[in-house]
Amino acid sequence: MTFANDLVTVHFLACTSLRNMKWFQDDHSELKLGVKSDKCAIHPWTTHSIWSEVCQSEILQKTFYHVIAKKYPPSEKYRRSFLKELMNQVESSGEVCAEEIFTLYVDLLQFCEEKTSYKSYFLPMMEIYVTLKESTNMLSNGTTGLVTWTGSMVLSEWCLTNRKLFDKKHILELGSGCGLLGLVLSKSFEMKSFTFTDVHPDVLEQLRANVHLNGLCQGKHSVKYFNWQERTPDEEKPDIILAADVVFDPLIVPDLARTIANFLCNNTSAVAFIASTIRNESTYQMFLSQLDSNKLNYFEQEQSKSSEVFFFDRKWDVRILKISMS
């Protein structure tokens, strides 16, 4: 499989927001001008025209009938929205929508919305997918840890472009949530170990399920309960501490900063990389102040557009800090 040829698959399996979705890789200005072409911009290796019945059938094969989608399907809500957008694209082009698409859409109207579903994220460098079971609601059972957040995607991309920092290292993640960051790194790098941690029992249960779903060996990868208000275990001496989107509540910021400091004291050569989506500048500044109070050095890391792997709304300001002992 190649990234460009199966762009529609990548978007569908990851439940990419339809407003951020690209049906074809290139500009294809002739399509924007309404000019008919014998070349399909979605399936450039074929001879059929775009949005034709053959094209529609190929899209269904690459999405609904894809081997991953059949085993780990996106949410029913997303599949309905995808089909509706597909019908709009076909009808806007002047083509006739295939009966199979209407049938699939009507069938999905019969279902009640489920509480959990799957998202599968493609890693083009490895040509593999990471599949996560996630909640269909941002807030579920009193926690936001059952869905993947922007910071995890941004930090994952940054780590992928800085792989030399992570090879042959013991890594611990704070607030792992669904586990995207750790799963991406575990499938991409040769690490000595990776420890996922979180505090909410439902998050830990789902996290263990996602680690198992992606076939990671238990000896090298572990999932542990860890409360930042409790004593940092002396036996945990990771080389690298990671966290994404954990700086959001002023009440937990002091415990987070103290926890990072304690891990760095356990191993003075260790470093932490923390990604924060800036939703409240004052909360982020409070975090920096707490790092100062714990006598920690921190430097914002550069990010490159060339490192982009995932498809999401990039309007958010996401900052990555490297933190070390003074």
UniProtKB/TrEMBL annotation:
Residues 57-105 form the FAM86 N-terminal domain. Gene3D superfamilies: Vaccinia Virus protein VP39. Keywords: Methyltransferase, S-adenosyl-L-methionine, Transferase. It holds the Pfam family FAM86. Belongs to the class I-like SAM-binding methyltransferase superfamily. EEF2KMT family. This is FAM86 N-terminal domain-containing protein.
